[in-house]
Structure formats: C-alpha cells, structure tokens
Design brief:
13 strands; 322 residues; alpha/beta; 3-stranded antiparallel sheet; binds S-adenosylmethionine; 26% helix; globular; 8-stranded mixed sheet
C-alpha cells in the first residue's frame, strides 16, 4: 500500500469516527456575531492552525479549500462569502465529503444565515485538482501538504498555483520541523498521515512555494505543535514540531527574487525626519516599517548605524515594503 493510500484509509476512519486528538491546534474557533460552529465540526477539527484570515475575504472572493475535514473552515469562510458555490471544497476521501455534507446540514440548523449550497463539495485529489485554471481568488489547505513527499508536494503546490488567478493567494497551515528526522520516522506511512513525520524546515517549505512561482510569501504565525519523544516514537532524540501559517501570493516573481515576509521590521533613528533608500522604502523616524527578508538584507548591507533591523517574529500581518 502506498503512503497516499494509507493516508486515505486513515482519513476514512477519521470521517466515520471523529478523533478529537488527531491533529491538534491551539487556535480558537472564530467567534463572530451569529456564527455557531456545531460541536461535531469542532470534534473533527483536523487542522494544525488557521488558514485564511478575515482580511483575505473581502470582495466576495471565489474560494477553494482542499482537504475538507469536518468542514469547519469552510463554514467560517462562508460567513464572509454568502453566495451559492462561493467556496469549493475538494477532498479525495468519499467518507470525509459525506461527513462534511452532514455537518453543513447541522450548521444550517444552527446558523440562520448559512445555506449548504454556499459550499460546493467536489471529489478530487490535491495532486490533480478538478478546478479550472486561473479561476480562484483565495485557496487554502490546512495540515494536508505536510503529508506529501517531495514530488507530490511539488505537484500539489503547482496545482494550487495553476488554479489561482493572478495575485490570488494560497493560505496554509502545516507543521514544520527544524531538526532532521530519521528515515524510520520519515517512512512510517501512518505517522506521516497523522501529520507527524513529513514536516520540513521553514526555509525548505518556503522554497517549495517560491520554486512554483509565488512572488510574495507571508509567514503569519509560528506556534508549538508536537513533541516526538524516544519513549513513544522511533527516535533517539526529542523532536520539536511547530506549525506555521503562511500565505503564498501569486504575484509576479521580482527580478531580484521573492519577497518573503518573516515578521522583520526596520526602524530609522537618525538625525533626519526620514530615511529614503531610493528603492521605494521610506523609513519615518522612529517608526517601524515591516520589511521582507530581501529588504532587510539590503538595508543591513548599507552598514548604517542609524537603522535597526529586528529579528524575524514569524508574525506578519500585512503592510510595509514591496
Ligand atoms: C489533516 S486532515 C485536515 C482537514 C481539514 N483541513 C481541517 O483543518 O480540519 C487532511 C484532509 O485532507 C484530506 N485528504 C487526504 N489526502 C488528500 C488528497 N490527496 N487530496 C485531497 N484531500 C486529501 C483528508 O480526507 C482530510 O480531510
């Protein structure tokens, strides 16, 4: 059996019998006026963070969500996009599609504003999406892509890139790990399907996105996720896994490379009211400006003693350079 088949089997089980501890997020559910998330959706929250932010949902975007789980995020997105078929949900596991379909009926009963028809559920594979080219404004996946091995991950990202409109965004949450993992862990299909042994270091994860052509990357959050310890897992050392929330925007690739925002800021504290680098960045005196890592490097290379550049906070929420 291939690791993809093992993954399908695991999520078939998780669809038939909700497993509260399957994936694990510390993110609270959305608390918004008139939005009620049915308990069954919360029990089937198999994500590892949040994906789309409310600010991604302006102007009725056409949305795609791959790997539907219990449907909780689809319901949350529908809150801002109340139109028939406004959100397409794709999953390869029939039982998961069926479970989410049932959960939407429960959501209708608890939310006056919600209609199941807001979500169009489609059977399909992340590696071959049943979606037209350049048709989606906002695409999302939560805790699925980390399961894929390198070649499949590339296919999945290329597929998302294909279906997004120019300047559309792919918003994701996945586990990441900065430590090496041994081959026993890496090749354990069940641990991989459980989102425990497929994760990449952040830099490799980001490179997979920029290699596909995404010109802007935002790392929006970085949080503790899981521990693999020698008593419970085939590892001799303790392995710390985090989860990150990332947006990859289908902006054209800048000639000097992608803009990757990791939460750095620059603060000018010299004698003048502002500093202008003549490359489009104006730093007002003593006011932080969010900068991408490329701009951080260019400002640092100036060797000035009146510009402070912060470390990456891995908490970027918009604005700034580029
Ligand atoms: C870890 S769960 C995450 C579910 C949901 N995103 C959430 O946050 O609760 C992975 C989801 O991806 C689905 N899935 C697994 N392999 C897939 C594939 N190749 N293509 C599309 N969906 C897949 C599973 O059925 C499951 O719904």
């Amino acid at each position: 059996m291939s690791y993809l088949e093992a993954t399908n089997d695991l999520y078939k089980e998780a669809a038939l019998t909700p497993d509260v501890g399957l994936c694990c997020t510390t993110n609270p559910i959305w608390e918004l006026p008139g939005l009620k998330i049915p308990r069954i959706m919360q029990e089937m929250n198999y994500g590892c963070g949040s994906t789309v932010n409310a600010r991604d949902l302006t102007n009725n975007p056409k949305m795609l969500y791959v790997g539907v789980g219990g449907g909780m995020e689809l319901l949350q997105f529908s809150y801002f996009n109340r139109q028939k078929g406004g959100v397409i949900g794709v999953d390869v596991v029939d039982e998961m599609l069926e479970a989410s379909r049932k959960n939407f009926i429960e959501a209708e009963a608890q939310n006056d504003w919600f209609k199941s028809e807001f979500v169009e559920l489609k059977k399909g594979d992340a590696l071959n999406l049943p979606v037209e080219d350049n048709s989606i404004d906002v695409a999302a996946q939560n805790c699925l892509f980390n399961i894929f091995k390198a070649e499949d991950l590339k296919k999945a990202i290329d597929e998302m890139y294909r279906v997004l409109k120019p300047h559309g965004r792919l918003v994701m949450s996945d586990p990441t790990c900065e430590q090496p993992m041994n081959d026993t862990l890496r090749n354990d299909d069940r641990l991989r399907a459980l989102c425990l042994s497929g994760s990449l270091p952040i830099a490799e994860y980001v490179k997979a996105l920029t290699d596909a052509g995404f010109g802007t990357i935002e790392i929006r959050a970085r949080k503790p996720y899981r521990i693999l310890d020698p008593k419970n897992y085939p590892t001799e050392e303790l392995i710390y896994i985090e989860s990150i929330e990332v947006a990859a925007i289908k902006d054209p690739m800048p000639e000097d490379g992608p803009c990757i925002f990791t939460g750095k800021a620059a603060i000018y504290y010299g004698e003048e009211p502002y500093f202008d680098d003549n490359k489009g960045h104006i730093l007002l005196k003593n006011q932080p400006i969010a900068i991408c890592d490329k701009t951080a490097g260019a400002l640092a290379d100036l060797g000035r003693d009146d510009i402070f550049i912060s470390e990456s906070t891995y908490h970027y929420d918009g604005g700034g350079c580029c």
